[in-house]
Structures are given as C-alpha cells and as structure tokens.
C-alpha cells in the first residue's frame, strides 16, 4: 500500500516532465528570432510554443518576451531566468546520458556559430560538415559577419575571432597563427615595380578594406607596431575575397591573411613583397561564452572549429 501512496508535495513524473519541457521550449525560444523560428527548431507548431510560454508567464507572474509581428525580444526577467535555466537544463541533459552509451545519439540541439566571411568556406563549412556527419541531431545555425558581434546579446555559442580576446566572459583557445603578407600579381609588379619601403606604398596602386564597424578603411599593419592607411586606393571593398580578387587580377597590391594568400603565393599567382616589414603573426581564436557545464553539442562544434582553423593554409 505504501508504494501506491504519493506524498501530496511530491510532484508526479508527468508533472516533472512537463515542467522540464516548458523550460526547454523557453530556452530554445530565447535563442530564436521568433516563435515560428522556435517552433521549427523544436518540431512543433508556433501555437504550441505560444501556449508553453504563456503557461510559464502565468506561473512566474512575469512577461518573458516582448512580442511584435516580426520578432520576439526577451525581457529583463526572461534574461535572468535564462541564466538559471540554461545551465540547469544542460546539467539534467548530461545526467540523463547513460555512461558508455552511444554518445552520437545524445548530442542534439542548436548551436549558433559566428565567424568572419573569409573563414566561412575555408574553415567553418568543413568543420560543420564533420559535426553534421557525426551528430545528425545537432542543428547548426551559422551567421557569417565581419561586424564585431556581441556574442552574449546575440546568443552565440561558438565564434572565431582574429586577435586576442581579453573579455573575461569568454573562454578562448588559440587555434592558429595568421600572418599578413603584402602581395601583388606578377603582371602588376612587371608593370609598376615593387615598393622599397612602407612609405613608398602611397605611390603604388593598393586596395583598401572597409571596416564595416566604422565605415572607414582598415589600416595596414607592419613591424614595430607601425600602421599605414591607404589614402587614394585603386580598389575599395568590404569583402576580403573581393580584395584578394583585385590582387589576383593585377589591379593593386593588397595585405591579406595568409590563410587566403598562401596557396596563391605557392603557385606563383601572387608575389610576396616587403616581407621584412610584415607584422608579427596574429592569433586566430575559437571562443565560447563561459557557460558551465559545456553541452556536448557546443563542445563538438568548438573542437571541430579548432581543428579546421589549425588546418588552414599558412606561410612558413
């Protein structure tokens, strides 16, 4: 008889499962742009997501999302709840994994990734291909942008950034060194010659890469911390591959990341100039927000991106 009696304060297994599912829906919705987007990720209907969020809002007596016709935006209360919900759900999901069981089946959920455009097909796509092959239940949400992302506000799980990250909110791992050679096509060098120093660059056709964060050209970097900004460029672009295309076409000299230029330098389609003036190598970092514990899906993407970055072409 004792086994048939449940203490009045003890929740039933069904209630616990329902509460867990409501919080899981809340987490996915917080990582989505709309209820419809969340429904697609969850494999349910927008109405089902709406009902789940409304139940949670009645329970907490607080609004979790500001709704509009196009998007939803999490409230301040929702953000605080999410900070508690996310690690708690990840802990439960990890505890539910049977030790020694097939891990591939347990790795699921959405991972949002951000990276510069120039690393999209060179590193991100190969890494995502391996993740998708090993963990087919993981949804990969990749956002390429040369704009400096606010990873916390944009709910980024894993990202790639050039240069060291000093933000204590993130875990960053250096995956490779990146050199910045100055290059030009042989036919342009045959036509105009080569500069003997940094100051002479102003007399040669050069490219200018636009920093979309400021709308101004990026400075070229050289040894001893010296910088030089193109004043009268022959070619302006806001995309690194377009800039490299201009160099390959013989339009102008360009300063490019070695993971882009190295194969063309090796084939002779680009020539490296002012090599003694090149700056020290920069780091290529894979990072993630400091959320503990780290879910298996995020760890899988993080590790594969490290491997992909480490496999990029490089100059000796």
From TrEMBL:
Signal sequence, renumbered to the chain: none
InterPro entries, alphabetized: LysR-type_TF_proteobact-type, LysR_HTH_N, LysR_subst-bd, WH-like_DNA-bd_sf, WH_DNA-bd_sf
Keywords from the UniProt entry: DNA-binding, Transcription, Transcription regulation
Residue stretches making up the HTH lysR-type domain: 18-75
Pfam families listed in its UniProt record: HTH_1, LysR_substrate
GO MF terms, alphabetically ordered: DNA binding; DNA-binding transcription factor activity
PANTHER family: HTH-TYPE TRANSCRIPTIONAL ACTIVATOR TTDR-RELATED, HTH-TYPE TRANSCRIPTIONAL REGULATOR
Entry protein name: DNA-binding transcriptional regulator, LysR family
Species of provenance: Solimonas aquatica
